[in-house]
Design brief:
Elements (H helix, E strand, L loop, with lengths): L6 H21 L43 H11 L2 H8 L24 E7 L11 E4 L4 E6 L10 E4 L14 E5 L13 E4 L6 E2 L25 E3 L6 H11 L4 E3 L13 H4 L12 H9 L4 E5 L10 H8 L3 E5 L14 E2 L6 H12 L2 H6 L2 H5 L5 H6 L5 H11 L9
Parallel strand pairs: 1-3, 1-4, 4-5, 5-6, 6-7, 8-9, 8-10, 10-11, 11-12
Antiparallel strand pairs: 2-3
The structure holds 2-acetamido-2-deoxy-beta-D-glucopyranose (2 copies).
């Protein structure tokens, strides 16, 4: 059907479709701007990173309004006025909840893990990217063959199922059954020996902060931000509550909306005519290939999760960070456990769209305040983000092979 592509923007709609009806009743819970919502709830002691007002760069509005588009020029102003030393100091003592992420095993004891070899066969049609297929050299002398080919792995230690359920029974000597569901509901099949989800409590965690979620992307990053149009949005699954939230906010800020929902650029596929330098493959331009490049022209990217639930932070946010834009985020209440300090505008902390829009517009006209949102990357202040990336799809093969090995592979205990 469809080859592997970035997950949520493109295929999650498809993956999610089957389960969407079920989820609707359980999970769809949007953050409308309303006094009853967590807008006023103070961040918990474990996710306390306040981004408003940005702490090191002084009070927003204390500097004269200054339109700017040159990003490096803005960074130089921030360096002169604030600088990494002050930024680091301001972030000291802020500890996100480390348990939101699994340890990827760096320091852990090898305990009989290797030398050994484990093979995992990925079954059936799935969004899991083809180019994750590889022979991995993992820690402790463990090697890991991850493949979609039943020729390459004719006697696999584990079978990975995504689109279909594993067999109900596993007989002695048969491969372990692994099931993955990265959607918000983390729905187990009920027949797996190992479950992979986005949450730290799942057997193996796979976050969305991995480069395998954006194969074939165009890596061009614009050095200039648009000065007049400050927010990028692109959504093609027009869930009504997300749309309403976006519409209320976007009506208050100059923006471009490229997707099917609330499109205001004169139709679909306009990003390439706006930004020809973003074309990755002129013979077959696909919107997901130039997504990052298009985003990089904007100061802000609106990112609204389709489901608001703990730890469900998807590529919508990471794409924007990877593109050098600042996400305006509505989603997981514990999002700060996953991202760099001071890297996003947390939309749920504002009491109205007007308040949020006025904040965003002030930052857009203040090169020093805006640069502060990029300071994490420039100063190496990453918080849990290092763990978030280490627990992504990119490293899933080794982490799964390790667990398969610990469970004994084909010779592991049957249920
Ligand atoms: C920003 O936009 C304003 C109004 O369109 C324009 O006058 C100004 O020259 C622009 N500034 C930069 C730095 O591009
Ligand atoms: C920390 O994160 C874990 C995993 O998401 C969660 O179960 C736990 O409740 C969190 N602890 C606090 C204090 O928020």
């Amino acid at each position: 059907m469809v080859p592997s592509k970035p997950i949520n923007f493109f295929l999650a709609p498809m993956i999610a479709f089957a389960t969407a009806l079920l989820l609707l009743s359980l999970f769809l819970e949007f953050p409308p701007f309303s006094p009853s919502l967590p807008t006023s709830s103070p961040p918990s002691s474990t996710s306390p990173i306040p981004s408003y007002p940005s702490s090191s760069s002084g009070r927003l509005g204390s500097r004269p309004k200054e339109a700017f588009s040159d990003l490096r020029g803005a960074f130089a102003k921030w360096d002169a006025e604030v600088g990494c030393a002050r930024f680091r100091k301001g972030r000291r003592g802020l500890a996100p909840n480390a348990s939101a992420l699994q340890d990827s095993g760096g320091g852990a004891d090898c305990g009989g893990l290797g030398p050994a070899h484990v093979s995992v066969l990925v079954k059936g049609w799935t969004w899991i990217p083809d180019n994750l297929d590889n022979l991995y050299s993992c820690r402790c002398g463990l090697s890991c063959l991850w493949t979609k080919s039943p020729v390459m792995a004719d006697k696999p230690d584990a079978l990975l199922f995504e689109n279909v359920n594993p067999p109900e029974r596993r007989w002695k000597g048969e491969p372990l059954r692994v099931y993955i569901d990265l959607e918000a509901s983390r729905k187990r099949s009920g027949f797996e020996d190992i479950f992979i989800g986005y949450h730290a409590n799942d057997d193996v965690q796979s976050t969305y902060a991995g480069s395998f979620f954006h194969n074939n992307r165009n890596y061009h990053v614009s050095p200039d931000k648009l000065n007049d149009t400050i927010v990028y949005w692109s959504s093609s699954r027009c869930v009504s509550q997300r749309n309403q939230l976006a519409a209320r906010f976007l009506s208050l800020v100059p923006h471009h909306s490229f997707g099917k929902c609330l499109n205001n650029v004169g139709g679909l596929d306009k990003a390439l005519s706006f930004y020809p330098e973003c074309s990755a493959d002129a013979s077959a331009p696909q919107w997901w290939d130039h997504l990052h490049c298009a985003m990089s022209h904007y100061k802000f990217v609106l990112a609204i999760e389709n489901t608001v639930t703990e730890s469900y932070v998807t590529e919508k946010l990471y794409y924007a960070l990877d593109a050098g834009a600042v996400p305006i985020y509505f989603g997981a209440p514990n999002v700060w456990d996953f991202i760099p300090p001071g890297s996003i505008v947390d939309g749920s902390k504002f009491s109205s769209p007007e308040e949020l829009a006025s904040y965003v517009k002030s930052v857009a006209d203040d090169p020093v305040a805006y640069s502060e949102f990029h300071a994490w990357r420039r100063c190496g202040v990453l918080g849990n983000y290092v763990k978030t990336r280490a627990a992504s799809l990119d490293t899933l093969p080794c982490r799964l092979c390790e667990l398969v090995r610990r469970k004994g592979g084909r010779d592991g205990r049957t249920l």
